[in-house]
Amino acid sequence: MDLHFRDVEPTDDERAAVDALLGPPESSWEGAERTEADLRWSSGGHAARGRRDLLLPGLHALDDRVGWISEGGLAYLCRRLTVAPAEAYGVATSYPLFSVTPRPATVLHVCTDLVCTAAGASALCAGIESRLGGLKALKGLEGGDRVAVRRASCLGLCERAPAALAVKTGDPVRTAVAAPATVETAVLAATAPDSAPQEPPAEAAVPRTGQPAPVLLRRVGVVDPSSVDDYRAHGGCTALRRAFALGPAGVLREIVDSGLVGRGDAAFPTGHDGRAVPVGRVWQAAASRPDQPRHLVCNAHESGPGAFKDRVLMEGDPYALVEAMTIAAYAIGARRGYLYVRGEYPRAARRMRRAVDRARARGLLGDDILGRGHTFDIEIRRGAGAYVCGEETAVLRSIEGYRAEPRPSPSSPSSPSENGLFGGPTVVVDVETLVSVLPILTEGPTASASRLVCVSGSVDRPGVHELPYGATLGELLARAGVSPDLRAVLVGGAAGGFVRPDELDVPVGSGVVIAFDGTVPLPRLLSRVAEFFRAESCGLCVPCRIGTVRQEEALHRLVDRAGPAAADDLALLREIGRAMRDASLCGLGRSAWNAVESGVDRLGVYG
C-alpha cells in the first residue's frame, strides 16, 4: 500500500495526543503554522529521524486518546517523526491491539486461548455479544457508548480463566478486568468500568501450600508495591549495595559462578545452538565490547498461552525489578534500560511506571545512584500484542519503531550482545532471570536454585508456584491439586508439547504447565494452537507464513474426517511441521508444530 501525505488533517484530539508525547512542533515541517523562516530552510529532519523509536509510543498515544489510528492522525505522527507513512502503516497493522479502521471507544477483549477455551470462552463470547446487542437495541447506545467485542489471544490472566479486559479510550484511558468472567461481570466491565469488581491483588495468584519459604516471591503480598520504604524494610536495595561494593567485574563473576540461565516460559532452549546460554557469559560479552552506548532490555512481553509470572512479579514486587535492572546495567556498563511490558497488562504497567518515578525521586535511578557515581534510568515501553515480540531480536526492532520481525538466526556478528538495540551491545533478559540476580548477590550462588512455574487449567490451586530445580511434573501437579480425571498436560504452552498422565515423573523444564481433564476436546485444542500460531506469525519468512496457515487448515479438516482422508492430512501435517522446524527464521515458526506433533503421536489425537 503506497501512502503519502494528503489533505487529511488530524483532529484536535489526535494532535493533542501526539504533542503531549513529542512536545509542540517547532516548524511547519513538523506540522506547525508556516512562518517566513520555514520558506527559507528546513530544520529538524535529522533530529526527528533520531526519534524513530517513539513511533510505537506515538501509535499508543493516538489509540489511547481516540480508540483507533486514523489516516490524519498517522500522517501527523509521521510528519513529526519524519517517518514514511507506508512504513508507519505497516508497523501499526502488525500489532493486534491497534486498529486503523474506526471502532467504538470501548473495546472488550475476551480471551479465547487455550486455558480460557477450556473454561468456556466460546459460550462466554456468545453470551456477551448477545447481551451487548440487546443493550444497544434497548438503550440506543451509539457513538462513544458502543462496545466492540474482540476475541483475543491470551490476556495473561490464566489462573482466573475465562478472562476479559475492557479498555475505554480517553484521557486517561480506563481499564477494567473481569476474571473469572461471566456475561454479567464482563458487560459491567465494558459499560461501567468504574463499577466493575476490583481486580484481585497480585498475591491471589501465588498459592500458599506450606512448601519451603519462597525466594523469588518472598515479597509478593508482603510489601506495599507502591512504597519504596516498605520495599527497603523487607531487604530491598541490599543487593544493589553489595553490587556497588563488588564492582562490575565482581558482579559478573558472581553471576557466572551461579550458573544462572535464562528463564523464559517456553520449553525450547534459549541458545541459538540448541543449548541454554549462561546469563553471566552473555553479560560479559556485552560488557567487553568497545566503549559505546550499551543497552539493557527487560522483555516482559510474556504473551504465550498459560504465562503470567511476569505480571505477578511486576504487580506484586515492582521495586525488585527496578533494583535488578539497575544491577544488570551496572555490571554491563549501560546507562539506559528499556522495560517492554505487554499491552494487555495495564495494572503492571501502571505499577512499574510509578515504581520507576518514585525510585528516581529517591535517588535509586538517575544520576549518581546512592552516591556511587553510577548513572542509569529506565524507560517503559508498552507492547501492543504480537507474540513474536518475545523473541529477543523482534523486541529490539519493536522498540526501535519498526515492525516486530526477528532477525535471521544470528551468527556471532549479529547477536544482540554485539549488535543490538540502535546498533550497540545489548543484553535482553526476562523478568524472572533479572529478579533471580538479587538473592544470588545477597545469599550466594545457590539461592537461584528455584524457579517459577505458571500452572493453570484443570487444577484446584492455579497460579505461580515456586519450586526447586529437579522437582518433577507430578510433584508440581500434586501441589496444585490436579484433577483426578487428568487427560493431558501441556508443558511450555503453545510452543511446548503434551505429556500423558503416566509420564509425570520427569523434571519440570518449563515455566508454563497447563492441565486438561476429560471434559476438554483435544482435537479442538490442537486447532486452537494452530489458530494461535497462524495469527501470531509475523509473516517475514515463507515457511512460517505459509506453513502456519496450512497447518490450521489441515487440523480443521481433521476434526470432521476419518479414514484415508485423515491419513492424507496427517501426512501433510508432518511434512509442513518438518519444513517449519527446519527453515523458519525464529522460534515461533520452529515451534509451531511441537504441540500438534505431540498431540498426534503421544496422545493419539485423530488416531
TrEMBL record:
Domain NADH-ubiquinone oxidoreductase 51kDa subunit iron-sulphur binding residues, every copy: 523-570
Region (Disordered): 403-422
Keyword field: 4Fe-4S, Iron, Iron-sulfur, Metal-binding
The organism's place on the tree of life at top rank: Bacteria
PANTHER family: NADH-QUINONE OXIDOREDUCTASE SUBUNIT F (PTHR43578)
Family in the record: Belongs to the complex I 51 kDa subunit family.
Name the UniProt record assigns to this protein: NAD(P)H-dependent oxidoreductase subunit E
Species: Streptomyces justiciae
